[in-house]
Write a structure and sequence with these properties.
The complex is a heterodimer.
Chain A: H1 2-51, E1 65-70, H2 71-74, E2 76-87, E3 90-96, E4 99-103, E5 106-115, E6 120-127, H3 179-204
Antiparallel strand pairs in A: 1-2, 2-3, 3-5, 4-5, 5-6
Chain B: H1 3-16, H2 27-33, H3 37-60, H4 70-92, H5 94-100, H6 111-119, H7 126-155, H8 164-167, H9 186-189, H10 191-226
Helix pairs in contact in B: 1-7, 3-4, 3-6, 3-7, 4-5, 4-6, 7-10
Classes of the chains: A alpha+beta, B mainly alpha.
């Protein structure tokens, strides 16, 4: 019987510590939840506003968002977010959170901003694991390469031009790194194709704030 | 506890029993995050905070925790402390959190913390346990920062880049770039650079220790002649 008693006391003690630990985490979670959400929102808006300046739209980018799915063109089987910028209720641009699945070290996550007239407002790499010093030049903080997409469209350059120079296209690759820029160029091209096929649908779909977001 | 034993605890943490150089614990975060000074500093501070908080808690409850459940209780405490720190960091240092984010939960796997809980805090009073946690943490952070400085300087040719993530706008002026036009040396930034860097630091510590020991030996062997 002594053994059972001993075990019971141990179990109760362990349970008690679990409750105290969980309570502590819950309290801190409650205290920081709002601030963390505000941080995430501010951070996202900051990256969206690099592509579409605050003066170009007057809607709430953060809440005018839909998710779409297209494994072929958007590079992932998961839902992809599309933020819509409007001014006086007229569509200005869509920012597609596309993925380049074929980076040198895993997928590269992009924000591709496409104006309503199907020209590129800009592209930014938001998440990547490319080799530092070589492939990471796709990152705007490392080089200006990604700016070479500005104002491009499906017609400029033509289909053959949408590739890195080594593949006969017009976009630079980097010394010692072709795979990363190739992945980004192809992903941007596919996003443009997607936009071309679904433009009106993209802007007309009612906004659907995503769970765990906002 | 006497002042002398406090000094002993401090010495152990910073040098004689340094968690990174002597106990070789917590290698996973140590090697993964030490590619720049600011990353090192961020993870070092978070680890130190965790060590102090977990040592303090473990010491306070040491009389109630039975030996047979002590390990799960320590794990529970450490996991809660780390989660709290992760949330706090996300709230107040959001951009640094985005960089270090995936490594913060890894602090749970840093054996230094459970090792200190088990071998020190569970046997000592509150104050010495806090001191032990603090200086073990500082010892760990010092190695992280030195390794981070070596790798950043060799790998990127800068020091303290992205300091603004931690210190706000003033941080931008803290970044040093000793050489113009330095193209960087990739190996230092990649994981092998971390292993080599840590190897060098351990070797240097051993050289210093050996010199000291030899000096001490000379004094000891010289004594009989004097007598």
């Amino acid at each position: 019987m002594a053994l059972v008693r001993h075990m019971t006391i141990s179990a109760v003690l362990l349970g008690l510590f679990a409750v105290i630990g969980t309570a502590m985490v819950a309290i801190i979670y409650g205290a920081t939840e709002e601030r963390i959400a505000a941080n995430e929102r501010a951070f996202l808006l900051k990256s969206l506003h690099i592509l579409i300046t605050p003066g170009q739209h007057d809607n709430d980018l953060f809440n005018d968002v839909i998710t779409v799915q297209d494994k072929e063109l958007l590079g992932t089987t998961k839902p992809v977010r599309v933020y819509r910028a409007r001014r006086d209720k007229q569509p200005v641009a869509a920012i597609i959170n596309a993925v380049a699945p074929d980076g040198y070290s895993g997928s590269i996550e992009l924000l591709v901003a496409i104006r309503y007239d199907a020209t590129l407002a800009g592209v930014r790499v938001v998440k990547h694991k490319e080799t530092p010093g070589l492939g990471d030049a796709i990152d705007a903080s490392k080089s200006d390469w990604v700016l070479s997409f500005n104002d491009r469209s499906l017609a400029n350059p033509d289909k053959k031009g949408w590739a890195v120079k080594r593949d006969g296209g017009i976009f630079d690759q980097f010394t010692g790194a072709t795979i990363s820029p190739r992945a980004v160029v192809n992903a941007v091209h596919r996003s443009l194709l997607y936009f071309n096929e679904h433009r009106d649908e993209l802007f007309d779909k009612p906004s659907m704030p995503i769970e765990g977001h906002a | 506890m006497t002042q002398q034993s406090y000094r002993h605890v401090i010495n152990e943490g910073l040098w004689n029993n340094n968690p990174a150089l002597v106990q070789i614990l917590g290698l996973c975060p140590l090697l993964a995050v030490s590619n720049t000074v600011i990353n090192s500093l961020g993870l070092g501070l978070a680890t130190t905070l965790t060590l102090v908080a977990s040592n303090a808690t473990v010491s306070l409850i040491r009389r109630w925790v039975r030996p047979d459940i002590r390990i799960p209780v320590f794990v529970l405490i450490i996991a809660s402390v780390v989660t709290v720190i992760e949330l706090a960091m996300n709230a107040w240092f959001h951009e640094l959190y985005l960089i270090l984010g995936i490594f913060i939960p890894l602090i749970v796997t840093n054996c230094t913390i459970i090792a200190r809980a088990e071998s020190f805090a569970s046997k000592n009073a509150l104050m010495p346990s806090i001191i032990d946690g603090l200086f073990m943490g500082i010892g760990f952070m010092a190695v992280l920062v030195v390794l981070g400085a070596m790798r950043e300087l060799i790998g990127f040719g800068t020091l303290l880049s992205h300091a603004d993530l931690m210190f706000g706008e003033i941080g931008k002026s803290l970044t040093l770039q000793p050489w113009e036009q330095y193209r960087g040396y990739l190996l230092a930034i990649l994981p092998p650079g971390a292993f080599m860097g840590l190897g060098f630091i351990i070797a240097i510590k051993n050289v210093i220790d050996n010199r000291r020991a030899r000096k001490l030996q000379k004094v000891v062997t010289a004594q009989p002649e004097l007598a």
